[in-house]
């Protein structure tokens, strides 16, 4: 879904008013850049305007040079904005517990270049996936969590994030709850995946209880992590239909497939800078 020929992505949010699109386009053209793709959305309920522009630029264009030339427009329209260089892959840390379906899917999609990211490390509270990390040549960090050492281990995690210059943390079925303090420090940089039964069937063995209840769909939700457990801004969701003849094992298999697919989709949208926060909701430019 990355645009062929695009070098940068410009994201803009501001109070909606006339002339924004024209001013942005004129500024881009004045820098000898070309618009490859442009999407915009005006939220009538909040009066906010959102815009994503993918652009191709001269070879010597840099983020700093574009920023300097774009500042007059940004100032005039009071834009909240950021320019992203698509030529630089985002650096991602993957965190996992014992279920490896999402981890394996992410590693495969990364190796086949379907996810434009560099995996800096795999972090887990178990040793289950160390051999897989070693096979991929990715650093593995074991951080077992107990109530007594949780804050100490989170401090180590933050140090690793800084040391590895991590842009994105992916919770690929990481079954530990991050502290409120850690969530705030990493705001907008952590994506989680969970089954879509919530707020029903919380806790252990959700698929077993869903089977006993006779649910007709299983699904998954990918969202940004906030201090409100599993209630951060939703990036994407999906479901699969359950048949009366499906067993518990069938539900689990369907659920894991859906979780893997939804998490990968959310990560790709984030990597391509297609997601913008709008309060507790998201604007997703596909």
Model description:
The chain has two domains: 8-85, ACT domain (Alpha-Beta Plaits, 2-Layer Sandwich); 90-284, Rossmann fold (3-Layer(aba) Sandwich), CATH 3.40.50. The chain is α/β, with parallel strands linked by helices and 286 residues long. Helix 3 packs across helix 8. The mean pLDDT is 94. It has a seven-stranded mixed sheet with strand order 7-6-5-8-9-10-11, with helices on one face. The protein has a four-stranded antiparallel sheet with strand order 2-3-1-4, covered by helices on one side. Strands 12-13 form a two-stranded antiparallel ribbon. The protein has helices at residues 20-30, 63-76, 101-111, 130-136, 150-163, 180-185, 206-213, 248-271, and strands spanning 8-15, 34-43, 48-56, 80-85, 90-96, 117-124, 139-142, 168-171, 190-195, 217-224, 234-241, 275-278, 281-284.
Identify the strand order in the major beta sheet: 7-6-5-8-9-10-11
Name of the CATH class of the largest domain: Alpha Beta
Give the helices and strands as they follow along the chain: EHEEHEEHEHEHEHEHEEHEE
Strand-pairing-aware structural class = alpha/beta
Mean pLDDT: 94
Let me know the number of strands.
13
**Tally of individual domains:** 2
Helix content: 25-40%
CATH architecture assignment of the largest domain: 3-Layer(aba) Sandwich
Describe the largest sheet: 7 strands, mixed
Output the number of helix runs: 8
Question: How far apart, in Å, are the first and last alpha carbons?
Answer: 8 Å
